[in-house]
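Mods, move this if it's the wrong board.
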Amino acid sequence: MYKFLGSILETNLEQYDRVLGLNLRAQYNITQKAAKCLIEAKGNIVNVSSVNGIRSFPGVLAYNISKSGLDQMTSCIALELASAGVRVNSVNPGVTVTELHRRSGMNNADYEKFLEHSKTTHALGRAGEAKEVANAIAFLASDAASFITGVTLPVDGGRHAMCPR
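Not the wrong board. Structure tokens:
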């Protein structure tokens, strides 16, 4: 079983806590520690969430919850820090070619099948590339996005549009 998979019937509290710790608690902790410096520097935050934060998918309950929580945290902190000139946004990638799935226990054959299946679950007919997500992050962190805060930006080849909530 892959480390991030599981339904309400399969995911125990230890697994749930681990996923939320990695995907939500850690971001909360680092944001809290960096907030004063960001205010002084008029910096900004771009969180990396997931399409799973804005759409529900079966079998990855804890992951969905963690990314949805990160999106809500992004919105809340955007409101809290806006008056100090700090912008807070997130990108919400769809399936992106990285080592994440392999590190989570997926073998090469299953990963290739997963990427092939992604051609049918993304409107643009393919998985994303890490550079595409990085470009969106760079934009949101740049002065070109100076009037954007509290946004969850799908960088998912249209996957969010294909999945009704």
